[in-house]
Write a structure and sequence with these properties.
This protein is 35% helix and 10% strand. It contains 7 helices and 7 strands. The chain has helices at 18-21, 31-35, 47-61, 71-79, 86-89, 91-94, 104-116, and strands at 11-13, 26-27, 44-45, 68-69, 83-84, 102-103, 125-126. The relative contact order is 0.20.
Length: 156
Amino acid sequence: MDDLVRLPGQGLVKPDSAAAQMNLGRLVPGGGLIASFDADSDGRISPGELKAGALAAFKAADANSDGQLVALEQQDWASGLPTRDDTLANPVRFDPNLDRVVNFQEFQAAIVHLAKNYEDTSGTIEIAKLSAPEPRPERNERRSPFDDPPPERSNN
């Protein structure tokens, strides 16, 4: 059974992805997609790689090549990414005018907006910084100190 991702946007890395090979178990929102833009495999995404990657991602998502994405195209595309990431599967995030279609400019703007969270002052993104912390357990999953039996005492 697949693990559920309970925290929005914190994608579990799929085992066969490049991110898994870099020992990244969980990525920040959009991290798997952004990491895939590292064309020269130097561990950094330059502004040029981000721009080229966004165009390639849009073309990959646009299954019928009509220059726009509908919700099903976007969700199908997101399911094939290196992480299970609800941030990228959410069509509303990419459709600010809510006309139910996403053109390339809207798509690119959403990717650039996500990337801004991870860029340094030169606009470069270090892949190592795309790693996300493990989520906190849900309230009902937290262990109580009373769950384990008390240690045995010796009667000396």
